[in-house]
Write a structure and sequence with these properties.
The complex is a heterodimer of chains A (232) and B (359). By secondary structure, chain A is of the alpha+beta class. Helix content of chain A is 30%, strand content 9%. Chain A has eight helices and five strands. In chain A, the strands form two sheets. Chain A has a three-stranded antiparallel sheet, with no helix packed on it. A two-stranded parallel ribbon of chain A has the order 1-5. Classes of the chains: A alpha+beta (232), B alpha/beta (359).
Chain lengths: 232, 359
C-alpha cells in the first residue's frame, strides 16, 4: 500500500518477509482468565502454557489469535524480495464478517448505541493512529490548530468525528492488520469500523487493499462503472 | 530511659485508641454501605466497563461497584483533573463576567489504590502551592473524602515498593480499607474520615484478630512486588547525561502516542483552548501530552522538540529530574499502567536501569 501510495520507492527498499500464522491476543487470554495476571507464557506445539500466581493453564493457540489474524487470507507475504522460513499453507477464514453482519442486521438506533458505548471508552491517546502503518499524514486533522477542524474537549461527538473520519480515510487502504485494536489501551474494537468499510469496498468495487503493486485504489480513481446507486 | 518508656506508653495509648476506631463490615453488607454513601454524597467507585476495563465512575447504587480488581485502566486523576474541563463560558456583546467555579457536592471516592492515592499528593504540589492555587483542582480535592483500598492484588508490572511506597501505604487516605476475605476493615486516618465512619450505620468494632490479620496480609503482598529499581542517584545521573547519545536509543521503540501520559496518575500537563460557536464560547482546559508533536509547537512553526528523541527525553526528565528538583519527589508511583498498556512494550523500569548502567 505504501508503495502504491508513493510513500516508498520499490527500488529503494528490499523487503524481507516471513510467513505469519497469527499473533496471540493477550486481551483474549486475560478475558478468559478473568483478568488474572499472567507471569510466564510459552508456546509449544500449538499450545500456550500460561502461568501466574496459583494457576496454570494450557490454551489452544487458535482460540486466542487476534480477530484480524483469524480473518487473514495472506499468511505468506504478498510481496517480498527475501523470504525467511518456508511458506505455510493459506487458510480460508471462517466467518470473516460474522460480527459485521450481526451489526448490519441491527437497527440504526442499536448501532448508534453500540458505537456510543464502545467509543465512550476512548481517551483520544491516538495510539490507534500511531500504530497504524497507513496513518502517515504529516499533520493529522485532529492536530490542526489553524484552523481547528476538530473539537478538543471530550465531547462524544468529537470522539465520533475522529474515529469516523479516520475510518473513512482508511477506506480502500486498510489492510486489516489489527494494529489499531492491539494498541488501544481501553479495549475498543476499532475493526468494527474498518472491517465494515473493507467489506463495503469489496462488495462495491470488488477491490482489496495492499495485494499487488499498481492496483487501483477505489477512492482515488474513477471509472464509469463505479456504483452510482447513491446518486438516486 | 525515661523518654523510651514515655514513647512506649504513648505508642500503646495510640494503639488502643486506634484499635477502638477501627471498624469492620461483612462483605455481603458492603453494597448497603455504599448505598448509604451514594445517598448522601456523590460516590465514585471502580466499575466494570467491559470484561477487561475497570474505571472509576459515579455510582448511584452500591452493587455497581466492582471492588475485586487489579487497578483501573485510567488513573482516577480524571476525577480531580478531568481530561476536558470548562474553566468559564462567555458570550459576545455586553459586559463579560467570569463566574467563580461553583461549589460542588461533597464527594467520596471508594476503593482508590494506595499508588493512585499517593499520586494525588503529587498533583497537589503542582496545583496547590503557596504562590498559586488552582481553584478547579483544589476545590475538588477539598470536598472529596478518600477511601483507599489496600492493594492485595499487585500485578507483575507493579513497582510501587521500588519508589518507597507500598500496597498498604496509607498516605493521602481519609479512611484506609483492607479486604479481609470475608469482611472489610476500616481504619480512619484523618479526622474527617473518623467523623464519617461514625455516621455509617452497621459497622462493627474491629477485633484484635482482624487487625493482626490485616498486618499479616500487608507483609505478604509487599513480597509479591519484585521489581527493583535504583533511584538514589538517578537525578544526578540525569543531570550529567542531558546531551548523551543514550537518548538516541531510548525512544526508538516509541510510537509517539499518548497512552503512557494519559493513563499516568501523575502526568498533569495541559493545554487551554477556546471553543466558540457563533457568539458563545468556552475556555476549556484539556490534557496534553509531551509525547505529541504539537506539545511544543510554537506559533512561528518552530518546534524545539521536533522528534521522538526530545519528547522521550522530556518525559523521563520531567518525572525523575525536573519534578525532583522542584518538589523533592519523583513524579511516579509505580502503578505500572504505562508499561502494561504501551503498544510498543516500552518499560520505564528498563529505561531507568539502562540509564543507571551508563558509565
Amino acid at each position: 500500500m505504501l508503495i502504491n501510495e508513493k510513500q516508498l520507492e520499490k527500488e529503494n527498499i528490499i523487503i524481507i518477509g516471513m510467513p505469519c500464522a497469527g499473533i496471540i491476543d493477550r486481551k483474549k487470554i486475560y478475558a478468559y482468565l478473568g483478568g488474572a495476571d499472567v507471569k510466564q507464557a510459552n508456546i509449544e506445539n500449538g499450545i500456550i502454557n500460561v502461568k501466574g500466581d496459583g494457576f496454570e493453564e494450557k490454551l489452544n493457540v487458535h482460540d486466542f489469535l487476534h480477530d484480524s489474524c483469524l480473518a487473514c487470507r495472506y499468511r505468506n507475504p504478498v510481496l517480498c524480495d527475501i523470504l525467511v522460513g518456508d511458506e505455510i499453507p493459506e487458510v480460508e477464514p471462517k466467518d470473516e464478517y460474522g460480527k459485521i453482519e450481526q451489526l448490519e442486521e441491527k437497527s440504526s438506533k442499536e448501532r448508534w448505541q453500540y458505537f456510543s458505548k464502545e467509543l465512550s471508552k476512548c481517551v483520544r491517546c491516538y495510539a490507534c493512529r500511531q500504530a497504524c502503518p497507513l496513518c502517515y499524514c504529516k499533520i493529522c486533522f485532529v492536530d490542526q490548530s489553524f484552523p481547528t477542524w476538530f473539537g478538543k474537549s471530550t465531547n462524544i461527538s468529537d470522539t465520533f468525528s475522529f474515529h469516523l473520519v479516520r475510518a473513512l480515510h482508511m477506506t480502500g487502504r486498510c489492510v486489516d492488520c489489527g494494529a489499531c485494536v492491539r494498541a488501544c489501551p481501553n479495549n475498543i474494537d476499532l475493526r468494527m469500523l474498518t472491517k465494515k468499510i473493507e467489506k463495503d469496498i469489496k462488495e462495491l468495487f470488488d477491490s482489496e487493499a495492499g495485494i499487488s503493486i499498481g492496483e487501483n485504489t477505489p477512492l482515488a480513481s474513477f471509472s464509469e462503472d463505479d456504483p452510482q446507486d447513491f446518486i438516486g | 530511659m525515661k523518654t523510651h518508656l514515655w514513647l512506649l506508653f504513648l505508642k500503646m495509648t495510640l494503639k488502643i485508641l486506634l484499635g477502638d476506631l477501627m471498624k469492620t463490615i461483612k462483605k455481603d453488607k458492603i453494597a448497603k454501605l455504599l448505598d448509604f454513601l451514594a445517598d448522601k454524597y456523590e460516590l465514585f467507585a471502580p466499575t466494570s466497563k467491559d470484561g477487561l476495563v475497570v474505571s472509576f465512575e459515579r455510582i448511584k447504587e452500591g452493587k455497581q461497584a466492582k471492588l475485586r480488581f487489579y487497578n483501573s485502566n485510567e488513573a482516577p486523576k480524571k476525577l480531580f483533573f478531568p481530561q476536558s474541563e470548562t474553566l468559564f463560558s462567555y458570550s459576545k456583546g455586553g459586559r463579560e463576567t467570569v463566574p467563580e467555579p461553583k461549589t460542588e457536592q461533597q464527594r467520596i471516592i471508594f476503593g482508590l489504590k494506595p499508588c493512585d492515592t499517593k499520586s494525588l499528593s503529587l498533583s497537589d504540589k503542582v496545583f496547590d502551592t503557596t504562590d498559586f492555587k488552582d481553584p478547579y483542582h483544589t476545590q475538588k480535592r477539598g470536598n472529596t473524602i478518600i477511601f483507599t483500598l489496600a492493594c492485595n492484588r499487585p500485578q507483575s508490572s507493579c513497582f510501587c515498593t521500588a519508589l518507597g511506597l507500598g500496597p498498604f501505604l496509607k498516605e493521602g487516605a481519609d479512611v484506609f480499607v483492607v479486604d479481609l476475605d470475608d469482611k472489610y476493615l476500616f481504619e480512619p486516618i484523618t479526622q474527617r474520615g473518623e467523623d464519617l465512619l461514625k455516621e455509617i450505620p452497621g459497622l462493627e468494632e474491629a477485633a484484635e484478630k482482624d487487625i493482626s490479620y490485616a498486618k499479616e496480609l500487608a507483609g505478604g503482598v509487599e513480597d509479591k512486588i519484585t521489581t527493583k529499581i535504583q533511584l538514589d542517584s538517578l537525578k544526578e545521573k540525569l543531570d550529567k547525561i542531558f546531551d548523551e547519545s543514550v537518548w538516541d536509543e531510548i525512544h526508538q521503540k516509541c510510537l509517539g502516542c499518548g497512552v503512557c501520559t494519559y493513563l499516568c496518575p501523575t502526568c498533569h500537563c495541559f493545554e487551554i483552548v477556546d471553543e466558540q460557536v457563533n457568539d458563545k464560547g468556552k475556555r476549556i482546559r484539556i490534557w496534553d501530552s509531551c509525547m505529541y508533536p504539537a506539545f511544543t509547537l510554537e506559533a512561528s512553526g518552530h518546534n524545539p522538540k521536533p522528534t521522538g528523541k526530545e519528547r522521550m527525553h522530556q518525559r523521563i526528565m520531567h518525572k525523575f529530574n525536573y519534578f525532583v528538583e522542584n518538589y523533592d519527589e519523583i513524579a511516579c508511583v509505580g502503578c505500572g499502567r504505562c508499561l502494561r498498556n504501551c503498544p510498543a512494550c516500552m518499560d520505564i523500569t528498563k529505561v531507568i536501569e539502562q540509564i543507571n548502567n551508563l558509565k
